[in-house]
Protein: histidine kinase
Organism: Melittangium boletus DSM 14713
Amino acid sequence: MSALGRIGCGLCLGLLGWILNLAALEVLPGVHLLLGPLVVLAAAVLFGPMGGGVAGAVSGVRTLWLWHHPWGWLNITLEGLFVGALRRRFTPLVADALFWLMSPAYFALTYWFLEDIPATGVLVSGLKQAVNGLLSVLVLQVLLLIPGVRGRLRPLLPQPLADVSIGRAFGSALTLGAVVPMLVLGGAEGRERYDSQLRQVNEENLHAARVVANEVESSIGHVSHGVNQLARTLASSLSAKGQLPGPRYLEGELDALVTYSPEVLSAYVGSPEGIALAFSPPNDLAGHPLVGADFSDRPYVRQVRLAQNPLVSDVLVGRERIHRGAMVVAVSPIRHQEHYAGYVLAAMDLPRLRQHSRAQVAGTQQRIRVTDARGGVVFDSAAEEDAEPVRSIVGTSLARELEHVASGATGTYAAEHDAVTMVRVGTLHHFGVVDVPALGWRVLVEQPGARLQAEVERAYFSLLGTMGLATACAVAMALAFSRTIVAPVQGVSHAAARQVAGDRTARAAEAARDAPHELHQLAETFDLMTGQLSRQMEAIERTSREKDAFLSIASHELKTPLTALKAHVQMLRRKLDGEHHERLDNVSRQVDRVTRLVNQMLDASQMGLRQLPLQRARLDLSEVVRRVAETLVATSPLHTLQLTTEPLVGDFDELRLEQVVHNLVSNAIKYSPTGGLIEVHTRRCDGQAELCVLDRGIGLRVEDEAQLFGRFERGDRREVTGISGLGVGLYVSREIIRLHAGRISLRTREGGGAVATVWLPLTPS
């Protein structure tokens, strides 16, 4: 397949992987199990690094939105490239395992150093992606072992997958069968554990929020009730002109309110204009009197003028010389009928409420915050200073989540909302909300998600350990089972190889003695078959030996009358006149032809009986080729010779090599019935003598190239039916060349015809 085709196939599979990645399974918060790597690895195995790289680049685009950084995308792309590059040397599982063995450096550089993800998060993410990739490649390898799948994809399978042993197949299947249920059950258990822990955290948060809300509501109620009672008392004590009692009386009442109301930090009575008429305690932090202080700028001074009942303010900043930090006050109007004579104010003791809240969450990671209707923080259990400034949650990610959470419900927010997923998940907080309806306040109790994350990470590592143990057990079982099954099959294979090598006594039943019934039966059937084949082969060989002996005897017997006939023809040629010479020459040629056929039959029989000796001598092969080729072509009026030679000196049997050259050149002439050029070349090539004989004859078919070297084989083509011959010339030539430690080939010539090539070793002089 072309490079463009591989890229196109990788692109299509990458789109499929991108679609599968849309269904990412969240194993842990921020940690997802992707299905796309299965398709990416399939592209890498089937279409090489280009297909795997393109598929990984397209499929991994989903991770940019999922994890908010490019390093997961780059990792998937590199995995496709790496496995595709090694697919011809290793199985997919081994290639992917090598990739993940080198990945820690990549994760340390990108996730930890560049993105500043915590080391634990980097470890979890790296292990998750490694498990994801290895599981995908294991599924792929098992799928590619299915016969139906292999049949359809065989042209695309690399060599390590095209030739898979039974042991590897068993190992892959058993490992997958052990790991997948473990992963599914372990993942489900881990998720259930996480959900259970989350429910517990939410219940803890809501319980603490209800307790604090009740305390806040109770404290506010006591303070409101106290200022309301004092306001009524003072309203009943107004003079006829509507004037409040004197400062001494007012201070006494205020002291009683502060003394008997632990929720009250300080209190004062104000005039309608907002001027303090009496204060308890009477002096500020510096010891100066507070009577006469002007509070007319406070919003509650305007609000209480129109109120009929006590009201509670939002959180505000106290006067620097009176109360530092945030404070909340309860105010009640002093009103007699329609006459407004002033107000009573009590500042609530927020540090006391904060201390109470801290007592509720002591020993835990919970944090309690109470907010007013505007989002201002009334108090925070995590605050260190009593005089903390007024803060607000408006505009924070917590405020955005609170908009969608009702009272008595729970939610989650991230402290770093715009960070990469792993960092953002590390800053998750789980909270519960309970409202104080009378005030519009909200009590928030939250806990960091680190506790849950650590718990689930422990479960995840435990799952990985269990999976590793299960994988080791599966591999051990696979090796044991494969040895049980493969050993008998290998016994049959070894017995077959020994049979091919000529060992007729080789049997397989002994190797399969302890094997399962089916394999033992296979070995016994093989032994029965080999026994029968051995008997048949012995009969065939005996017949062949008898035939070779017959041919040898017949050839010897025929050579005697042919020699005599040749002698008589020569005598008649000398005695008869010239008009009979042409007829006698024709008779002589026919006798020579029959003699050659008899010699070929004799050579074939001797070779069958392994009785063909060589008489080696030092000679120039090119001279032998020249002499035989020129003689043969000179007797054919339709053919011409193109001869190219160079000296090729070696130890050869001259007569036998003359026989080889004679057979090759005569075949070129014989199978070029319309004539033409016969090319004969000799040259030195890599320390060997090379002889080539080329013609433009009828040529040969590809399936005939090996068949024609058989004994008495001439092929079954219609074109050779009118051409005489026994079909032993090439057979004899091949055996002679083999005795010289050489080799011969016959192939079709481009443009028509055939090419016969002989290589013979040249011994040093």
